[in-house]
Design a protein that fits this description.
Shape: elongated
Strand order of the largest sheet: 2-3-1-4
Organism: Streptomyces tremellae
Structural class: alpha/beta
Oligomer: single chain
InterPro entries: RapZ-like (IPR005337), RapZ_C (IPR053931), Sig_transdc_resp-reg_C-effctor (IPR016032), WH-like_DNA-bd_sf (IPR036388)
Protein name: RapZ C-terminal domain-containing protein
Helix content: 25-40%
Pfam families: PapZ_C
Order of helices and strands: EEHHHEHEHHHH
Length: 225
C-alpha cells in the first residue's frame, strides 16, 4: 500500500516501525526520537556524469536507481548494521512502543529512499510491521557545490588543460608533492574515484570549462600524481 508521502506500508495491522527518508539540504528534518542512518557516503546518481541524464527524473523507488545506490561500496554494511540495530531495539521495546528510523542523504530523492526501502523490506521479512515515508522525494534536485579551495580548483583546471602534475606544480610554484596533494584533495571533494572522473565531475558542475584543450576530450586518463 502506498501512502500520501510516496512510501510503503506493511500489511501488518500493527506498525512497529516508521522509516522516514529526508534530504539534509532542505533543512526540514523529521522530528522525534529515531535511529539515524546516514546514506550520504553512498553513490548519488545526480552526481555521476554517466548516470545523471538517465536518473535525473527518477527516485530511489525506481529499480534502476535502487540497484545503483545499493551497489555502492559500503551500502550492504550500512544496511545490515542499521537493520541489526533496529531489530535489537525492537526486541527490547515495550509493547506498543515504536522504533523509528530517519535515513538522511543530500536531497531526499535517491540514496535515503533506496536505503529506507531496503531496510524496511528486511524488517518486514523479520516479521515486523513497517511503514516508510519519503517527504522530500518530489522536491527539486539540489545543486551540489563542492568546497574546493582556490588552489585545489586551480590545480584541477590546469590538469584539465592537459598539463602533467609536474607542470601543475611548476605553474603553481609548489613542490610536486604539494601539487599531488592538491589534486588528491580536489578528487576527494568531488567524490570522484579517479582524477579523470574528478575533471568530468567539475565540467558537469560548471566549475571547469569543458572547452579546455586536452581534457576531458582526451581518450586517456591523466597520469596519477
Amino acid at each position: 500500500m502506498t501512502s500520501d508521502l510516496m512510501g510503503s506500508q506493511s500489511p501488518h495491522a500493527l506498525i512497529q516501525t516508521v522509516i522516514i527518508s529526508y534530504g539534509e539540504g532542505h533543512h526540514d528534518a523529521p522530528r522525534g526520537d529515531a535511529l539515524r542512518v546516514d546514506a550520504r557516503p553512498l553513490r548519488n546518481p545526480p552526481e555521476d556524469p554517466t548516470m545523471r541524464d538517465r536518473m535525473l527524473h527518477s527516485t530511489g523507488l525506481d529499480p534502476e536507481v535502487r540497484a545503483y545506490v545499493l551497489s555502492s561500496p559500503g551500502a550492504e554494511r550500512l544496511i545490515d548494521r542499521s537493520t541489526r540495530r533496529a531489530l535489537a531495539l525492537l526486541g527490547q521495546a515495550r509493547a506498543g512502543r515504536r522504533v523509528d528510523l530517519h535515513v538522511v542523504c543530500g536531497g531526499g530523492r535517491h540514496r535515503s529512499v533506496a536505503v529506507a526501502e531496503e531496510v524496511a523490506e528486511r524488517l518486514r521479512a523479520a516479521g515486523y510491521g513497517v511503514e516508510t515515508e519519503h517527504p522530500h522525494i518530489a522536491r527539486p534536485i539540489l545543486r551540489w557545490h563542492p568546497q574546493l579551495t582556490e588552489h585545489e580548483l586551480t590545480a584541477l583546471r590546469l590538469l584539465a588543460s592537459g598539463q602533467h602534475h609536474l607542470e601543475v606544480a611548476k605553474e603553481l610554484k609548489v613542490q610536486p608533492e604539494t601539487a599531488g596533494r592538491l589534486l588528491h584533495r580536489a578528487q576527494i571533494h568531488l567524490r570522484a574515484r579517479t582524477l579523470y572522473e574528478a575533471v568530468a565531475q567539475g565540467c558537469a558542475l560548471g566549475i571547469i570549462d569543458p572547452e579546455l584543450p586536452g581534457y576531458p576530450h582526451r581518450r586517456s586518463a591523466p597520469p596519477a600524481p
